[in-house]
Design a protein that fits this description.
- The structure is a single chain.
- The protein has 448 residues and is α/β, with parallel strands linked by helices.
- It folds into two domains: 98 residues, no CATH class; 315 residues, no CATH class.
- It is 32% helix and 16% strand.
- It is built from eleven helices and 18 strands.
- Strands 8, 11, 13, 14, 15, 16, 17 and 18 form an eight-stranded mixed β-sheet that branches. Strands 1-2 form a two-stranded antiparallel ribbon.
- A hairpin with a 2-residue loop joins strand 16 and strand 17.
- Helix 5 runs antiparallel to helix 11.
- The termini are far apart.
- About 23% of the residues have low confidence.
């Protein structure tokens, strides 16, 4: 718009009485378009020349604000005082000085940054080093050498895990010949008698005295898991695809004999209650980290005790999350999965934040909110098809995360059976050691 056109229009407009102007209603956007000579509908934000469809919306930034050529923001649909619009030498117009905070060097006056983000935003946790800055630090510990260095409550489990890594007691005797036909050239031959087992080695006296499942169907499932592991690697699929195509069927099959006492859940939507997030050091944000799966105690006696324990309290869940499936089923094992090229450090950090928050809830239930928790919590990290077992040990001066060497990789049928055996020994530990502790310490009724 040229200056001569503006001056000609202004000469034809009668200025309103000052008193009336003070009380005049705000001009509607449609009126402004008539005054400006705009006959077409207003341009939408999505069609604006400066619109970026991939830009992240920023807090405090209205969707009805656009940037002018000089970088300042202008309210769309709010009429301008044309007397303040100046024409430039090239026929374009320049905007009047802004009445709001101006932008200088990327920050606004008053100390806040453009878009309302604080200069002191916290950095998200990406590795275990960040957790050493927490109020109660989480420390990585390489696998301990001697049995007596481990807590008493996991020593029997450790012995069973050691046997699994060596291929002892991993293959059902009736399908041994069929399984051997699926071996790769680098697989263990599974020729020793101690590679085989009878069904009831995982029986839980008093809860499940005998176990029964279809071992022929199990072999077919594990063969499919092995094939899908290779496919997921080749096709570079996403983490959710790994979960649904490989890990979920494997967990289903492994826990089939324990269906009445131990279950598993996809908990990718379960969020930590903020009261239980570990307090962090300066500049570190221990946000509500989520994990992928949990093993839980699911028998009727445990769930009944959980509900009874909650009735006199103001809490609505027995764990550290209000996710429906976990409200009355105590978590025994937590599992975080990653793709083959995913970060192991990030997976361990996620598990650490999740599990230390759970420990805070268990301390609260056990009546020892400031002391060390006298139960060890096993956790599993799965990276692609590789399974790794760690233990979270609560101490007075911090929390130790002890990680064992990788157990198995589901790219081979032998290792598929190893993972199944590992999960079943963890289920036995859950239904015996952990169940006794939580019934005696966390779910016991307390006098008020």
């Amino acid at each position: 718009m040229h200056i001569s056109s503006i001056e000609s229009w202004l000469n034809q407009v009668v200025a309103p009485d000052p008193v009336q102007q003070a009380f005049a209603r705000k001009r509607k956007a449609s009126d402004a378009r008539i005054v400006m000579g705009v006959s077409s509908p207003p341009q939408s934000i999505a069609s604006a020349p400066d619109y970026d469809p991939d830009a992240t919306p920023r807090a405090g930034e209205s969707s009805k604000r656009r940037k002018a050529a000089d970088g300042r923001k202008v309210n769309v649909g709010v009429p301008l005082d044309l007397r303040q619009v100046k024409a430039t030498h090239d026929g374009t117009t320049s905007l009047p000085p802004s009445t709001t905070s101006s932008t200088t060097g990327g920050s606004t006056t008053g100390g806040s940054t453009t878009g309302g983000r604080s200069n002191k935003s916290k950095r998200r946790v990406k590795d275990m080093g960040d957790l050493e800055l927490a109020e109660k630090p989480v420390r990585q510990v390489t696998h301990l050498k001697r049995e007596e260095e481990y807590p008493q409550d996991i020593r029997a489990l450790l012995k069973n895990v050691r046997d699994v890594r060596r291929g002892i007691g991993i293959l059902p005797r009736p399908v041994a010949d069929q399984a051997r036909k699926l071996l790769n050239i680098v697989d263990e031959p599974l020729e020793a008698d101690n590679n085989l087992y009878d069904k009831n080695i995982w029986a839980v006296p008093g809860l499940q005295d005998s176990l029964d499942w279809d071992i022929n169907f199990e072999l077919k499932v594990l063969e499919k898991v092995m094939e899908r592991t290779e496919t997921c690697i080749t096709e570079n699929v996403s983490e959710p695809s790994w979960n649904s195509r490989v890990h979920e069927p494997l967990l289903d099959m492994a826990l089939e004999p324990f269906s009445r006492i131990v279950g598993h859940w996809d908990v990718t939507k379960a969020v930590i209650e903020k009261d239980y997030v570990l307090p962090s050091g300066p500049g570190i944000d221990l946000q509500s980290k989520m994990v992928d799966f949990c093993l839980t105690l699911s028998d009727n006696d445990v769930m009944r005790a959980a509900k009874m324990r909650l009735r006199p309290s103001n809490r609505r869940m027995i764990n550290h999350t209000e996710y429906q499936a976990l409200r009355f089923r105590p978590i025994s094992i937590s599992i975080e999965t990653k793709t083959p090229d995913g970060s192991t450090q990030e997976a361990r950090a996620q598990l650490s934040v999740w599990t230390t928050a759970y420990m805070a809830r268990l301390r609260e239930l056990a009546g020892t909110p400031t002391g060390a928790l006298d139960i060890t919590l096993p956790i599993l990290t799965v990276r692609g098809g590789q399974w790794e077992l760690s233990f979270i040990i609560d101490k007075a001066d911090g929390i130790d995360m002890v990680t064992l060497p990788p157990i198995a990789d589901t790219r081979s049928i032998v290792d598929c059976y190893k993972v199944v055996a590992l999960i079943r020994w963890l289920a036995v530990w859950s239904a015996t050691v952990f169940r006794k502790w939580i019934m005696d310490r966390a779910l016991a009724q307390r006098s008020t």
